[in-house]
Amino acid sequence: MGLLRGVFTIFPASRDNGPMNNKNKHKYGVSKMGYNLPAGGQNQVGYNSYSRDSYAIPKKRRKWPFVVLAVVLVLLLAAGGVAFAGVVYMNSLNDKLQNNIDDELKATLSSEAVQPGDPFYCLIMGTDSSEERRESGAYGDTFRSDSMILARIDPRQKTVALVSIERDTYVNIEGYGPNKLNASAAFGGAPLVVSTVSTFAGVPISHYASIDFDGFKDVVDALGGIEVDVPMEIDDADAGGHVDAGLQTLNGEQALILCRARNAYEEAGYSGGDFYRAANQRMVIGAIAKKLMESDPATMATSIATLCDYVTTDMSVTDIVSVANSMRGIDTENNIWSAMNPTISAYENGVYIEYSDNEAWRKMMTRVDDGLPPYEDEKRNVNDGGTLDGTVRDNS
């Protein structure tokens, strides 16, 4: 259960998405919950459990990064937990996990074989293929990634570094020139994203994983529902409907509404609906993880099989189980680190752009590649005694 605790305590940095006429360099402080907060400790929504608490007025925030991380960690835990289920079952999961992994993507991943126990990098991407995204048509039939996380996993040292990369980061895309990182997904799909991130970070990427968040509904239903204490009544037609406030068991449809709700908060007078949506997503994924790990083997197996319908990776189940087993005993309080690529934010011609702070980025990735925490001050990267009541307190 040690690694499961890590699911509830790792969060990527938040940022101010408000319009800016001038570039504004990000600086980070630390909170009791493991957030990397902008210096000054402005209020944030701090849910990392399923308890009810009043929302604080936040700045806007990207939608999906925590969900990506949590789903991957839950998948690792679950795969390790059902390793006893048998070779036939595991092979059936392989077919699901490796669907749509083509030769071009395999060729883009590092050709250097990862030996057992050696550290490796995995690029984790999250997408939302909901009807809302389909109808937007912003990138035709190609869905942009809602989040990207570059993970360095070191089984021998039992450390994990997770670096969220802003999708609006301005980078050079081979064959297309300078553009937002997220545009690489539209231009060349996963292979171009992998090669672009690898070049930008200066490290080889050995594995790839993509998660479609639309799968939440089926996973929750496979578990028989999840218990969540909803902080306020949700009435959001764009998100799909209504969810009552209070402690309750949510079915898959209700959980998905909670994960997508944004307008309800703005209509209630809270700015930054995306941030509240992210807080709800953390509640839901935490409840999924808790229910999954408490399930009987049959329910767990069914839920994992459902989850695999929405996860694509070049890794086999055997690979995942091997990594999960090698990471047993990891010190989740001190050896799982999270960070975000340092950027300079700009709002130009009605468009948000993140310009890379190249010197700070180089220093960060040098530390990560050396097996060290991304920041020199390790206290910025660990959960130093946070509570599970959703409270965020400045500790800078």
UniProtKB/TrEMBL annotation:
Signal peptide: none annotated. Gene3D superfamilies: LCP protein (3.40.630.190). The chain crosses the membrane at residues 66-90. The keyword Transmembrane helix applies. Residues 144-292 form the Cell envelope-related transcriptional attenuator domain. Pfam families: LytR_cpsA_psr. Keywords: Membrane, Transmembrane, Transmembrane helix. Residues 372-396 are annotated as: Disordered. It comes from the Bacteria. Residues 372-382 have a biased composition (Basic and acidic residues). Belongs to the LytR/CpsA/Psr (LCP) family. This is LytR family transcriptional regulator. It comes from Slackia isoflavoniconvertens. The lineage of its organism: Bacteria, Bacillati, Actinomycetota, Coriobacteriia, Eggerthellales.
